[in-house]
Design goal:
about 75% helix, about 0% strand, single chain, about 90 residues, mainly alpha
Length: about 90
């Protein structure tokens, strides 16, 4: 403290307020650190990849965990048709 500031007597209320302030500063510091971590590009990418994995697992598996082969076959068939179509278009243009 500077010499111009009068000394505040350390009453139980002052001690309690100082303890609360210290606790709030620590909590705020932790919160800021968490926000910084969440906003890191690598962390954002990790969360997005995990979300896509979960969605793919939900769409390609039954509730009891079995692979939905009919859906996978349909997607592979549609992909094959698109690729064949693209190949035929390129072939006809050249």
């Amino acid at each position: 403290m500077s010499s111009s500031t009068p000394a505040v007597p350390l009453t139980p209320q002052v001690v309690q307020l100082e303890a609360e302030l210290a606790e709030r500063r620590a909590h705020l510091s932790t919160t800021v650190d968490e926000l910084v971590t969440r906003l890191m590009p690598r962390e954002i990418l990790r969360r997005e990849v995990e979300a896509v994995r979960i969605k793919v697992a939900e769409k390609t598996r039954t509730p009891d965990g079995q692979v939905r082969s009919e859906l996978i076959a349909a997607v592979l068939g549609a992909t094959s048709i698109v690729l064949i179509g693209v190949g035929l278009l390129r072939r006809s243009r050249s």
